[in-house]
């Protein structure tokens, strides 16, 4: 019931339904997890942590509570703690692409791209439609100066998602690196056609056109 309310955006009704469920089943960790997720959804991450903590008191093996705790800590920019909880969630059997993606993002926030790489790759392997993980994988490769591999990844992202302006921009940057100016100009133009206010793409296009003159 509470999930139906949540989908419709009826947050107050959802909260009330969950409070009733908690009252009826105080020993069940699930409504605590759901209530915490509801609070996280409205950016009340500190309050959400209280509910996840209660869920984990009731069931220390609750992978969903561990994962949601990680999300709350990430949103609070407490990246070390977030990473710790994502790893704990994996230990308890939560081995989905989302966990790998979030672990990768924790490493990126700490500027540890080399440690983020395998997590973004794994996430993209687990779900071929996970464009964002693939894109982040490409960014990490580029930041580690593995430009040829990064370029191929950005090409794949643009094929899978022709509306990904940032992928076209980064593809353009990679093309500039290899002095492929026509291809770079085309990529920057594509980025701007998707997102006309893409400042970096506009700057890249201007610089390339100056070089081509």
Automatic annotation (TrEMBL):
Q: Which PANTHER family match?
A: PROTEIN O-MANNOSYL-TRANSFERASE TMTC3, PTHR44395
Known PROSITE patterns for this protein? TPR (PS50005)
Q: Where are the TPR repeats?
A: 29-62, 63-96, 165-198
Q: List the keywords (alphabetical).
A: TPR repeat
SMART domains from the UniProt entry: TPR
**Matching InterPro entries:** TPR-like_helical_dom_sf (IPR011990), TPR_rpt (IPR019734)
- Does Ribonucleoprotein count among this protein's keywords? no
Keyword rRNA processing annotated = no
What organism does the record attribute this protein to?
Answer: Fictibacillus marinisediminis
> What Pfam families does its record include?
TPR_12 (PF13424), TPR_16 (PF13432)
- Protein name as annotated: Tetratricopeptide repeat protein
Biological process GO annotation list? protein O-linked glycosylation via mannose
List GO molecular-function terms, semicolon-separated: mannosyltransferase activity
């Amino acid at each position: 019931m509470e999930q139906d309310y949540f989908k419709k955006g009826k947050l107050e009704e959802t909260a009330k339904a969950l409070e009733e469920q908690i009252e009826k089943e105080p020993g069940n960790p699930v409504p605590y997890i759901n209530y915490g997720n509801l609070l996280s959804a409205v950016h009340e991450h500190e309050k959400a942590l209280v509910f996840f903590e209660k869920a984990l008191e009731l069931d220390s093996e609750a992978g969903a509570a561990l994962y949601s705790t990680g999300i709350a800590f990430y949103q609070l920019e407490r990246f070390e703690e977030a990473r710790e909880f994502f790893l704990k969630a994996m230990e308890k059997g939560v081995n989905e692409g989302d966990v790998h993606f979030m672990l990768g993002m924790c490493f990126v926030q700490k500027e540890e791209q080399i440690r983020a790489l395998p997590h973004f790759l794994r996430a993209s392997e687990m779900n071929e439609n996970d464009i964002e993980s693939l894109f982040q994988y490409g960014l990490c490769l580029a930041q580690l100066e593995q430009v040829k591999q990064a370029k191929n990844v950005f090409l794949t992202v643009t094929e899978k998602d022709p509306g990904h302006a940032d992928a076209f921009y980064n593809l353009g940057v990679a093309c500039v690196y290899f002095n492929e100016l026509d291809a770079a100009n085309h990529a920057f133009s594509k980025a701007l056609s998707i997102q006309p206010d893409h400042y970096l793409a506009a700057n890249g296009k201007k610089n390339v056109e100056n070089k081509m003159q």
